[in-house]
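Action item from last week, closing it out:
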Amino acid sequence: MRAVLGILRFAYEIMSTAQQPLAPQ
């Protein structure tokens, strides 16, 4: 289950950054 949650969270972060690019760290 942790692997699935990690993948979902990873995809969510990608979609978020696609909509509004984050500042370079």
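Closing note: The helical segments are 2-19.
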